[in-house]
Amino acid sequence: MLLLTRNLRNSAPLLLLAALTSQPLPALADTLPADAKPTCTVAAPVFHSWFQSGSVTLNGVVKPANSVTFPNIPNCSFYQWSEQMFLWLTSPAPTIYGAGAHIFDSSAFFDVSPPDSSGKRSFIPHLPGVLRNFSLRAAQVGPNGLPVVLSKAGKLLEVVTPPTAPSGNPLIHDKAGNFVEIGKLNVTADNKAVFFDAAGAKIDHVVTPPAAHPAVSKIVRKFVVGAQTIFLDPLGNVVETEEGQADDGVLVAQNGSLVYYVTIVNDVYAYMRTGAVDSGITPAPTQFPTDAAELAKIVAFAGAHGVTFPDPDALAIEIKSSWVETTGLHDPGSYFTMPAVVPTYDKSNPKKWTPNGQKTTTLALVGIHVVGSTNGHPEMVWATFEHVDNSPAGTYTYENTANATKTVTQSAAGSWLFTKTNSTGPFNAEHQQFVSPNIEAIAPFDIGPSDVLRAKAFGAAANVSPNPIDGSATASNTEIISINNSVRGQLASGDLRGNYVFSGATWTIGGAAPNSGNEVGTSSLANSTMETFQQGSDNTTGSGSSNCFDCHRTNTTIVSHVYGALKPLF
To answer: Which conformational region is residue 329 in: left (phi greater than 0), alpha (psi within -120 to 50 degrees), or beta?
Structure first.
C-alpha cells in the first residue's frame, strides 16, 4: 500500500497519487493559503545554514537558534527563532546528545515529574531503554498556581475550592464563623447564590477568599452540589463560564484516545535550577539567562560536575507537548511517535471512568509549546505548533500577493483528529474533567470527544490588533502564514516536520513583566490541544481570548510554573 506523508505545501501531489492507486486516500484536513503575501520568510541561504550539514536534507539535523545573539527585532526574527527551534527539537538526535530518537527526547533534556505529596517535582532523565510515563492533562494554572476557567466575559479566572464534608459536599462559613455543609444551592435573579444546609434551612453565609489568596477579581470559588457547579467571585456574585467549563478538563480525541501531556526542560534549565538551589551559582539567578555572562555561570557550574552542554547558546528551554495513541489514526506515518506508559481506565460507565492500571502504547505528537529565553527576553518567547490534522481553523483573513484582503471561512469539512467531520459545534466545550482519581462527565455530556476549533487560527482575534507593528489581525495572520509557507516549502519532501503548523509566538515589549497591555506578537495565542477550553468558541475576544501571559504574568524564573517546585538534580 502506498504510504502518504502529508505536508502543507500544496495538494497537487495528492491528485497525482490518487490517480496512481486504487486505495482510497485520507482527506487532507487543512492547507494554508499559498498566495499569502511573503511578509515574513526565511531566505534560502539562511534556511540551508540552519542544517548541520549546510544544506537541506530529509529529516536532517537542524542547529538551534543562537538565543544569546538573538537579533530581538520584532516581529519576524521571533517567528524565525520559533521555527528554527521547533526544527531543532524534532531533529534526529546526533550522538553528542546521547540516547533518544529526537533531540527533545535525548539525554540533554529532562522530563518534569508531576508534583508529589509535598508539591515538589523532580527532573527525570531520559535513559536508554527506559519507557517514559505520560499523564493526563493537568489543570491549566494561573500565576498563583491555581487552576483556571474561562468566563463568558472572556476572562481567565483562577479557582479555589472550599473544604468538603465527609459526604463530599462543600462547606461554607455561616455568619457565626462555623463551617456548615451545603446540601442544596439556588441562584437568584440578581445572580447571587443561596445555600441551604442538609436539612433544607437557608445558610446565612459569608463568602470570602481564603487568606492565602488575596481578594482579587480574578479569583473565584467553586462550589459543586449534586449536579450543580457554580463559581463565586469575592463579592458573592455567580460568574458565568463558557459551556462545559471546568477547572481540570480532560481532552479526548475522535479516535477515542485520551490526550496525554509531558513537560520537558533542557540541560541549561536543569543545571541553572540545581545551581540556584544548592548555592552552586551565586547569587541565585532570579531570571532565565539572556546573555553570555549569565550563561557562563551555568556552564561553569555544569562543568564542575563533569557535564558539557551540546548547545548552550540555545539558553533555557521548556517544552510542553501533547500526545494521543496511534490506534485509529488514519495517517499515523505523518506524526512523530514514541513508546510510552500511560494510565488505563474502566470505561464501562459513560459518566465516570475509574483507573484500573497502566499499559505500554505508542503515542503520536499532536501539539508542542516551544518556550525559551533569548537576548532581551527573560519572560521567554512562547511559540506553539500543532499537527495539521488536529482541528479546523476559525474564520480568518490574510493579505495575498496582490495586496487584497482574503477571507478563509471556518469549515469542519475533511477529516480531523479532534473534530467531527462537518461539525457545527458547540466548539471547545469540556465534556469531562479529572476528579482524582477518576474522569467524570460534565453535564449534559457523556465522556467522549469534544469538537475542537482553532478559534483564533494564528493567535490573533479578528476584532483587535495583536501587536502594534502589524496593526491588524489580517497583517499578523499574513506573517504567520507566510513563514509557514516559507519554511515548509523549503523542507525536503516527506520531512515529518512539514506536517506541523506554526500557530504563532508571543513575548512582551522589551522583555518586561506582562501587564495586560505589553504582550505582543500573536497575543491571542492558544494550542487547540493544550488551551482547548480557554480560547473561546469563535474568532473574537467576545467569546473569550487567552494568551500565555494570562497565566505566566512575570519575567522572573517563576514565569515557568514548574521552576520553583523542582528539586535539584543532585
So the answer is: beta
